[in-house]
């Protein structure tokens, strides 16, 4: 197969031949995949932020009928874009590790599957999370915990989310999943697949590890405002740093910061409702 590809490239112009040779390499495809999909996610979120008033009006619907269905679809699309924008960059080391192994195999003439398949499996897990988050958003809105602008309507609610996310940073499940995210090579070495379905399943399994690592921190968006782009970027950076392999100290530090922030939300909420002293 590689000889046929080389023969075909020899009939192209030098520039086209170089471009074709580059994009035949899994590492190039993987990098382009991460950049393109994450970029599309941020672009869509930027457009949504620019037209937030229209989305807010649709999100006020709490019953899935006509306008409610449209609102639900738009919110689900928003959460889907958010997961692409925030989670794909943090998955880049995993996807590039797969691509590096596949690149080595391709040079040896062994069959490999495009990194698009592992990225698709990974994204499928987070799109599932996006659907669950959409249902949660409508439930929180109906319970008056979120206001019409998709921001928290209760300091106690925000504080509870921050504290829960902070506590999760110290859990055994968090660190078990984080180890898998930080060191994907042993996983790929033990579970290597050479069919599209098999590689898609690898992506799903890695996506589940990532979900187990990051779901609690993603829920912080309910506390700070679902469309708060600054917090999206900040949390995305924190989760990416965690997966690079910074050790437990950084993860514990983030947990402490979240718990302290949550306690501050709770104290401010209690102080705001504290009965005034009668003089």
The backbone outline, from C-alpha atoms, is globular
Q: Runs with pLDDT <50, length 5+?
A: 1-24, 60-67
What's the helical proportion of residues? over 70%
Q: What is the mean pLDDT?
A: 79
Care to describe what's here?
By secondary structure, the chain is mainly α. The protein has one domain. It is 80% helix and 0% strand. The chain contains 13 helices and no strands. Helix 4 crosses helix 5, helix 5 packs antiparallel against helix 6 and helix 7 packs antiparallel against helix 13.
In short:
The chain has helices at 2-10, 14-23, 26-50, 52-59, 67-107, 115-142, 155-168, 172-182, 184-191, 196-218, 220-224, 229-245, 248-272. With 279 residues, the protein is mostly helical. The model is unreliable at 1-24 and 60-67 (pLDDT under 50).
Question: Secondary-structure blueprint of this entry?
Answer:
Blueprint: H1 2-10, H2 14-23, H3 26-50, H4 52-59, H5 67-107, H6 115-142, H7 155-168, H8 172-182, H9 184-191, H10 196-218, H11 220-224, H12 229-245, H13 248-272
Helix pairs in contact: 3-5, 4-5, 5-6, 5-12, 6-10, 7-13, 8-10, 8-12
Key attributes of the depicted protein:
single chain; about 280 residues; mainly alpha; about 80% helix; about 0% strand; globular; disordered N terminus
